[in-house]
Amino acid sequence: MGGAGVRGARRPELRLPVLERFEGGGLEPDGDYDGLEFREADFAGQDGGGARFMDCALTGCVLDGARLSRARVLDSVLAGVRGVGTDLVEATLRDVELTDARLGGTQAHGAVLERVLVRGGKIDFLNLRAARLKDVVFEGCVLVEPDFGGARLERVEFVDCALKGADLSGATLTDVDLRGAASLEIARGVDRLSGAVISTGQLLDLAPVLAGELGIRVEG
Q1: Least packed by Cβ within 10 Å: which of 116, 131, 176, 216?
Q2: Closest Cα partner for 108 from 151, 74, 165, 143?
């Protein structure tokens, strides 16, 4: 998307090889998964901490309470995954497409996202505190109360998505394009919008929050 004065995000370019169906019983800590297709797998409560997924496709998988902290997901597609309380703390997602996800309470603080496309679906209470996002696109999705506290966002775009009750406290934004957001609601950290670009209409919508942040009384 980009625009004058804003560097657009680089999207992932995925070309998955012919995949082999995953026949294993479940995830393993520090497991190494390469060129595999996980279809309708139930990983609820399983421990895949530190695992590496390379050239993989996870389709319709259940991730309730799955532990994937410090996991590395590279050159992979996650489609229709769903889960509550998934642990992605300090995980790395690079060249990843996440489509039509239904996630709630995902813990991804300290995670690194680079060349990631999040398209469609709904993600509630996503914790990205102190995370690093570079070349990330949120497209056509709903984000309810995402927490970007202390995170660093560079070349991040919001396209036709709803951003509800976002927390930007202490965040650092560089070339963040919010103009395409279908709705933009910032609960905290509106003062951190330096480095972002918004539309005139969004500025008007945010005016009351900005006035409150600056201590301006608006009367009459």
Answers
A1: 216
A2: 151
- Both structure tokens of 95: 């060249």
CB atoms within 10 A of CB 70: 19
What kind of architecture, by CATH, is found in domain 20-214? 3 Solenoid (2.160)
CB neighbour burial string for 120-150, b if at least 16 within 10 angstroms, e if fewer: bbebbbbbbbbbbbbbbbbbebbbbbbbbbb
pLDDT at 116: 98
Domain boundaries, the chain: 20-214
Express each pLDDT in 164-209 by its tens digit.
Answer: 999 999 999 999 999 999 999 999 999 999 899 999 999 888 888 8
Beta strands of 32-151 (E only): which ranges?
Answer: 32-34, 36-39, 52-54, 57-59, 72-79, 82-84, 92-104, 112-124, 132-139, 142-144
Share of the chain above pLDDT 90, in %: 85
